[in-house]
Amino acid sequence: MGTDETLLHEAQAIRKRLAGLEADAERTRVEYYQAIRRLHSFGISMRDIADALDLSHQRVHQIVTGGGHMPASTPRNLVQSLIRRTAKERTPGGKPEDPGRSLLDRFDPDAREALSYAQEEAATLNHSYIGTEHLLLGLLRAEHGLAARALTALGADLEHMRHSIEVRMGRGENAPAPPLPVTPRLKKVLQLARHEAKRLHSTHVRSEHLLLGLAGEGGGLAARMLAELGVGYDHVRRRVERAALACSFCGRSGLDSVHLIAGPNVDICERCVDQAGRLAAGETPGSAHASLSVADQDQAVTCSFCGKRQAEGTRMIAGPGARICTECLILCEEIQDEERATLNTDRP
After folding, report:
1. To 5 degrees, how large is the angle CA 83–CA 205–CA 123?
2. Is 80 exceeded by the pLDDT of residue 239?
3. How many Å apart are CA 295 and CA 83, to the nearest integer?
4. CATH placement of domain 66-241
């Protein structure tokens, strides 16, 4: 091998390593942005986040509201081609905008990552198109996005889903050349995702909006696979809308809670409702809920839900940052039973 060829192979190897490092850096950046958004969703101000992370307030605002650059691992022409096929936006004067610019800037990094993974999944199966099923896999692979967490909480498994799609759709004979065209159903999903973002007062389309679009479309393979998990659109919507909340008694994320009952600036999950009921009945708390206890009668405590003081002869169940009286506990149990009944009727 000549000197020229040796140097060429060396440069190619370095380029490959560099591409891998850039992809890792962009995935870490997405994870960082998601961590900042979670901090803000739990009530920490942008100013405090900026001070703690040595960022400008403007930069934190851009991250929280969905700004950011296109990850290097996401082919820009892929998202542009998807957008051009799904929307023709017009200005008030009736002239078309540049769809690759106007809509691309409205896709959050985790949504772009999911679209990139969707193309990879389609290419791996040698499929000549990108369908709703590929986007479902892409959402699961974009593990730092809210959609991946929601899907995992709902019982979805990436390998099982991928195998199920291969069994149903088979593998193509030849590897297609990118960028791949999208199916009409996926076009509809992307349009629905934009509507979901607006409904939830988000300036950007995020992974959870894509998931709501998949569930709301109803007829595609992804929607059918979600239905097989016993999950309909209303179920997904409730999970997504609770994602920024947490149980005030045990700290469990609203995303991981089947039921999360809200009071004035306080929430309680179904597990704590159950355990609080046991404590109120005089039973011993389980180890998983050791943080809950019966408040002493001599403590001047009030219920976080109704504001009433603990009365003589009654039990007040207390957690690290909240309390609930037996009267409100009974009401929470009734609400929980009603939600269970509604959830069962929502399941396909």
Report:
1. 50
2. no
3. 57
4. 1.10.1780.10
89 in Cβ contact with 99 (< 8 Å): yes
Indicate the domain borders of the chain. 66-241, 254-346
Q: What is the dihedral of CA 237, 230, 187, 211, to 10 degrees?
A: 40
Report how far residue 15's alpha carbon sits from residue 251's, in angstroms, rounded to the nearest whole number. Answer: 45
Rounded to two decimals, the pTM is: 0.60
Is the separation of the CB atoms in 221 and 132 below 8 Å?
yes
Q: Which amino acid, one-letter code, is at 189? A: V
Q: Which residue's entry shows tokens 């003589």?
A: 312
Question: What percent of the chain is helix, strand and coil (3-state, nearest 5)?
Answer: 60, 5, 35
Instruction: Calculate the average pLDDT of the chain.
Output: 76
Per residue in 247-290, pLDDT tens? 888 877 776 677 778 777 788 888 888 888 888 887 776 555 56
Query: Looking at the chain, how many residues does it have?
Result: 348
